[in-house]
TrEMBL record:
<dbReference type="GO" id="GO:0008270">
    <property type="term" value="F:zinc ion binding"/>
</dbReference>
<protein>
    <recommendedName>
        <fullName>Adenylate kinase</fullName>
        <ecNumber>2.7.4.3</ecNumber>
    </recommendedName>
</protein>
<comment type="pathway">
    <text>Purine metabolism; AMP biosynthesis via salvage pathway; AMP from ADP: step 1/1.</text>
</comment>
<feature type="binding site">
    <location>
        <position position="160"/>
    </location>
    <ligand>
        <name>AMP</name>
    </ligand>
</feature>
<dbReference type="GO" id="GO:0005737">
    <property type="term" value="C:cytoplasm"/>
</dbReference>
<keyword id="KW-0862">Zinc</keyword>
<dbReference type="GO" id="GO:0005524">
    <property type="term" value="F:ATP binding"/>
</dbReference>
<dbReference type="InterPro" id="IPR027417">
    <property type="entry name" value="P-loop_NTPase"/>
</dbReference>
<feature type="binding site">
    <location>
        <begin position="10"/>
        <end position="15"/>
    </location>
    <ligand>
        <name>ATP</name>
    </ligand>
</feature>
<keyword id="KW-0547">Nucleotide-binding</keyword>
<feature type="binding site">
    <location>
        <position position="36"/>
    </location>
    <ligand>
        <name>AMP</name>
    </ligand>
</feature>
<feature type="binding site">
    <location>
        <begin position="136"/>
        <end position="137"/>
    </location>
    <ligand>
        <name>ATP</name>
    </ligand>
</feature>
<dbReference type="InterPro" id="IPR000850">
    <property type="entry name" value="Adenylat/UMP-CMP_kin"/>
</dbReference>
<keyword id="KW-0479">Metal-binding</keyword>
<feature type="binding site">
    <location>
        <position position="130"/>
    </location>
    <ligand>
        <name>Zn(2+)</name>
    </ligand>
</feature>
<comment type="function">
    <text>Catalyzes the reversible transfer of the terminal phosphate group between ATP and AMP. Plays an important role in cellular energy homeostasis and in adenine nucleotide metabolism.</text>
</comment>
<dbReference type="Pfam" id="PF05191">
    <property type="entry name" value="ADK_lid"/>
</dbReference>
Length: 216
C-alpha cells in the first residue's frame, strides 16, 4: 500500500504512521525525521534546511523532492510506504505523481487528519524531545517519569525551536496557505479520506485501520 498522511503539525501523523507501519510492514517515511537527522549530523543539507525550519517555514521543493524520490526507490519501499510530511504543496504532489508514474505505480489513498487549531497549539507547545535519543514526550499527554529527563536513555528533554508558541502559529499559518489546497487536489483524484484526529490515540488508530482497509 502506498499511503500519504496529511494534516497540520501536531495532528498525530507521526504517531499513527509508526503504528500502521508496523502492522502493514511497510516503511514510515518522515521528511521531518530526515531533516532532523541531517541537522544532528550538521550536513550541508541539514544546515540549509535549518534556516527554514527554525522560522517555521517550508523547506524548498528542490531539497525535499530529491530526498523523497531517492528514498522511494530503496528496496524496502517495494511493498509500499507511508509518507508523513510530504507532499506539502500542490507542486510537490505533482512531482510525486510524476515519480510514481516513472516507477509504474500509484497512490492507494491519502489520509487527512482533522484537528482544531486550539488543540494543535496545546499539543505542539507541550512537546518535549530527548536531545540524546530523539524520544518524544508531552508535558500533559505523555509526561516523563522525571521532569526534563528521558525515560529511555536519561538524556535531557528540550523544547524544539519549532515548538514554541510563536513558531507554532507561523507553522499553522504556512500549513493553511501552502498545504490545505492538497485537500482539494486529492479529493479531485478520489483518494482522500478525512478522519477525526482529536479522538484518543487508539480510537484514531481504529478509524485509520478501517479507512485503509476500505481503500485496499
Amino acid at each position: 500500500m502506498r499511503i500519504i498522511f496529511m494534516g497540520p503539525p501536531g495532528a498525530g501523523k507521526g504517531t499513527q504512521s509508526e503504528k500502521l507501519s508496523k502492522e502493514l510492514d511497510i516503511p514510515h517515511i518522515s521528511t521531518g525525521d530526515i531533516f532532523r537527522k541531517n541537522l544532528r549530523e550538521k550536513t550541508a543539507l541539514g544546515l540549509k534546511a535549518k534556516q527554514y525550519m527554525d522560522k517555521g517555514l517550508l523547506v524548498p521543493d528542490d531539497i525535499v523532492v530529491a530526498i523523497v524520490k531517492d528514498r522511494l526507490r530503496e528496496p524496502d519501499c517495494r511493498k509500499g510506504f507511508i509518507l508523513d510530511g510530504f507532499p506539502r504543496t500542490v507542486a510537490q504532489a505533482q512531482s510525486l505523481d510524476s515519480a510514481l508514474s516513472e516507477m509504474e505505480t500509484e497512490l492507494t489513498c491519502v489520509i487527512n487528519f482533522k484537528v482544531s487549531k486550539e488543540e494543535l497549539i496545546a499539543r505542539l507547545t507541550g512537546r518535549r524531545v530527548c536531545k540524546a535519543c530523539g524520544a518524544t514526550f508531552h508535558v500533559k499527554y505523555n509526561p516523563p517519569k522525571q521532569q526534563g529527563i528521558c525515560d529511555l536513555c536519561g538524556g535531557p528533554l528540550i523544547q524544539r525551536d519549532d515548538d514554541t508558541e510563536e513558531t507554532v502559529e507561523k507553522r499553522l499559518d504556512v500549513y493553511k496557505k501552502e498545504t490545505e489546497p492538497l485537500i482539494e487536489y486529492y479529493t479531485d483524484k478520489g483518494v482522500l479520506i478525512t478522519i477525526d484526529g482529536e479522538k484518543d490515540v487508539d480510537e484514531v488508530y481504529e478509524d485509520l485501520k478501517g479507512a485503509v482497509r476500505g481503500c485496499d
